Amino acid sequence: MLQRSRKAVFLGPVVSASDDVPKALEMLRDAQARVPGTTLENMADLIPEMRRIKSPAEVEMIRKAVDITGKGIVAAMQSVEPGMMEFQLQSILEHIYEMEGAQFLGFGTILAHGPNSTVLHYGSNDQPIDDSGLVLIDTGAAWQHYTADITRTFPVSGKFSPREKELYELVLKAADTAIENLRVGADHYNDLHLVAKAVLDEAGYGEYFIHGIGHFVGLDVHDAGNYALPLAAGVVLTIEPGIYIPEEGIGIRIEDVVLVTEDGPVVLSGHIPRTVDEIEAVMAD
Which domains does the chain have, with CATH numbers? Predict the structure, then answer.
């Protein structure tokens, strides 16, 4: 093949100096040594870029995964009861996924009550749920191998306390501000992360925002792609500001899946209750 084409292309992945040379690269280099006058081009960014820009068919599969995830989250909001274990509420959530036809999860569910919600990657899900405080659920059903990634935070009692409402609406403002800046040509860090953090900084809570604003989502929950490139139509990513205050036992994150289009952002998860009023209404139903 190399004798005919005179050119070989390496599609990656590029690995560190301490790793073994990838087998594909070894094969191409060996072939080059046997066919003089040939070239080897590095195109390791090609497939990640194809994954960064979603086709309409891919967007529809992500939308389906988001819709199923939303049904599970609403079921959890309406089923939470003091005294149940975190994993019991998780089982209700994930049962809905299965009944809706999702055969597996996009990633392990985080279901944290009270102080556990301040642990960024909490995954034990094995503590009892008290009669007060907040429940944070970070979860995603997968549909045809495309995953959602949604986080909602809600009160066990069905009603936010004044303090919980204050902090929740601050995080929601940061999320909405980032989404408003999500457009073709935007910079992931400067136009999304920093504008969301500025909202929290102004209110005095910037130090409690301990992670990035979001990530690409698709075949993987943290999907392939180059964050240094300006956003393009077809990119699907999460917007997920949060504040975590261990001394108060309060962790709040709001995470949505958003599609970049030429006409502006489309919040694929916008129908999943996310405002204080929407959450309290669905929990009262």
Answer: 2-44 (no CATH), 54-284 (3.90.230.10)
